[in-house]
Amino acid sequence: NAGVMQNPRHLVRRRGQEARLRCSPMKGHSHVYWYRQLPEEGLKFMVYLQKENIIDESGMPKERFSAEFPKEGPSILRIQQVVRGDSAAYFCASSPQGRGNEQFFGPGTRLTVL
Amino acid sequence: GENVEQHPSTLSVQEGDSAVIKCTYSDSASNYFPWYKQELGKRPQLIIDIRSNVGEKKDQRIAVTLNKTAKHFSLHITETQPEDSAVYFCAAPLSGGGADGLTFGKGTHLIIQP
Predict the structure, then answer these.
(1) What is the pLDDT of residues A50-85, one digit of tens each?
(2) Cα–Cα distance for residue pair B104/B15, rounded to 1 Å
(3) Is residue A40 over pLDDT 80?
(4) Contact A103/B31, CB-based, under 8 Å?
(5) Cβ-Cβ contacts under 8 Å, B102 against chain A
(6) Is A48 in contact with B45 (Cβ distance < 8 A)?
């Protein structure tokens, strides 16, 4: 059973470009969470999605950031018009049930904005 | 929402000794408390978790204790080994009675001295 998969593992963008991060949950998992980790810091919750629905986006910046989890295909975190402060590791996690169950993390995408 | 505090930020112990990391939480409705281990450049890995209906859980050299009255939980690692060196994060549900994202402590850098 493959684990949570993320791609790309490393992404370099210039200021003003768009970054698109992908996450495929573990087989049988229908709940996806995105977190951001700045260097030397903990993980900050961004958004929680189920198939075709955003359940909680309270941690997502109001502008430039969006997330989706379509019926078919991976979950996507999109950052428009990136700025240097967006440089971070972005992790997604998945769980089989939403309430109080284990979240398994992917390897992360390390975004560098030049 | 939930607020998680973690101490200490750095912990150095001699190989073979025990290590204890402590976390406090604010939302009395929280009912799930995982611990993650993160090695440099790697994904967070779930090492143990506890639910609010028990006070202690063990898995070989790792144990977690929960005090619901005081709203704190601790990670105990016995007979520490070099491979235990990593950053450890505690977490709790973002909104104890509802949302399923996790809020994380700021992490403890555990250093095992040979």
Answers:
(1) 988 999 999 999 999 999 999 999 999 999 999 999
(2) 27
(3) no
(4) no
(5) 33, 43, 45, 103
(6) no
